[in-house]
Specification:
seven-stranded antiparallel beta sheet; single chain; alpha/beta; 20 strands; 438 residues
Length: 438
């Protein structure tokens, strides 16, 4: 069984790259004028940089304009948009916010038009993923200030799917609900999906006989090809003509909905970015200069259509690769983006950079590994890279295999500590698998 390619907005999704660039320039010019006129923050930043909207003669000229950082948002946008707002506060109808675990939260205020834009982009994303009217989605993203839950909820209803607003938690009940409601779509963080799969196994649930799931939509953390493959295989999604579709977004980008993996690219660990609404650059995180297509760098986004609090050249802190490809799904004017990791999550160990997502990717290839935790011990003069591995089959051969695979992607050889099944924490939201001891 294979999926039929469907489009939410075929006139846009099948646009040529040249026509898309014309649309991007038109919207970018209008947005720069808007923030220059109405946002005290950007009027000041542009003046300090010696630029005005008139300096944009081509898309490449955006490089002349200053970056926006998370620190800028914390200082000038919290709690209600502050100096970033381009509308009166009375026009704001909703707020979303980051957790603030690494400092003051960053805020995402929305006007009614912003909510309509968000809902429409989520409908486009879910349609690209294969979700259709009549599907039943169990939404296990958290509701509340976190953008994931409501974004998927709004978009699924716009498509015509039924939504079970489960949120995270009560996992055994969630598994039963998947069976009882005959859910066809599951949305959650990839870490929570793996925990759901583990719970199914403990309960003796047969995904082939007991489930109706066709599509899984993981997001909120990097979804590597191996993680996507594991979710798809464990839930037997392709047996029903579906698969794993990564969704990408953030509070700063108007929630989830910036992009979604399609059936054509589900195994790449990437997603199609909707660059008619978000202009994307990839830069060297150290120099700020652009990198070439397919090269690794930090993603920078500019809102082309956001109304309440548009951002110009926002450094997203995600390390990505961006490229263009011809696929059977169309949408060839839009880039494919692969998330490699977070700038903030990079572990510096003895002169090397370690990306936890790269370690996760290789460990997902080993069936004996149930869960893992990275420990960097800096308490003594000699730092130590320790990998705690949860497995029912601890053997010297497994230890050697893990060391070799991890060293091939981390360029550092870990000390392996095997722990018993059920020892390491499981995650209903974003995973926290790195422990720094100082």
């Amino acid at each position: 069984m294979t999926e039929k390619v469907i489009f939410w907005e075929p006139h846009i999704e099948n646009i040529s790259r040249a026509e898309l660039q014309k649309l991007q320039f038109k919207r970018l010019k209008r947005q720069l004028i808007r923030v220059y006129e109405y946002s005290p923050f950007y009027r000041r930043k542009f003046k300090e940089a010696g630029v005005t909207p008139d300096d944009l003669k081509s898309l490449d000229d955006l490089r002349k304009f200053p970056f926006t950082t998370k620190d800028d948002l914390r200082q000038y946008a919290y709690p209600n948009g502050g100096e970033f707002l381009t509308v009166p506060q009375s026009e704001l109808v909703s707020f979303h916010m980051t957790s603030g675990t690494t400092g003051k939260p960053t805020v995402g205020p929305y006007t009614y038009r912003d909510l309509e834009l968000w809902t429409n982009l989520m409908a486009r994303s879910l349609t690209a993923a294969g979700v259709v009217q009549g599907d039943i989605m169990l939404n296990a993203y958290g509701y509340g200030l976190f953008t994931g839950g409501l974004g998927f909820h709004y978009g699924a209803m716009r498509v015509g799917a039924s939504v079970i607003p489960w949120s995270a938690g009560r996992t055994e009940g969630l598994v039963q609900a998947l069976i009882d409601y005959k859910a066809t779509v599951l949305s959650a963080t990839p870490s929570y999906m793996l925990y759901i799969i583990e719970t199914m196994k403990k309960k003796g649930i047969d995904p082939v006989k007991d489930l109706n799931l066709r599509i899984a939509c993981p997001g909120a953390e990097p979804v590597t090809p191996e993680v996507a493959k594991k979710i798809s295989e464990e839930l037997h999604l392709k047996d029903r003509g579906g698969g794993t579709r990564q969704c990408y977004g953030s509070t700063e980008t108007i929630g989830p909905g910036m992009g979604m993996a399609t059936p054509c690219i589900e195994d790449t660990g990437g997603f199609v970015a909707w660059t008619d609404h978000f202009y994307v650059e990839v830069i060297d995180p150290d120099t700020g200069e652009p990198v070439g297509e397919g090269e690794e760098g930090e993603m920078v986004i500019t809102h082309l259509t956001r109304e309440g609090m548009p951002l110009i050249r926002y450094r997203q802190r995600d390390i990505v690769k961006m490229y263009y490809a011809s696929t059977d799904c169309g949408r060839e004017a839009f880039p494919i983006i692969q998330i490699r990791g977070r700038v903030d999550d990079v572990i510096f160990y003895k002169g090397t950079k370690i990306f936890p997502s790269a370690i996760q990717d290789v460990l997902m290839k080993i069936p004996e590994v149930m869960e893992f935790q990275i420990v960097i011990d800096k308490r003594g003069p000699e730092h130590h890279f320790i990998l705690k591995v949860e497995t029912p089959f601890p053997t010297p051969a497994l230890e050697d295999r893990i060391k070799a695979l991890v060293e091939s992607v981390a360029f550092a050889r870990p000390k392996i500590e095997f722990v018993a099944p059920g020892t390491l924490p499981r995650f209903e939201g974003k995973a926290k698998r790195v422990v720094i001891l100082e």
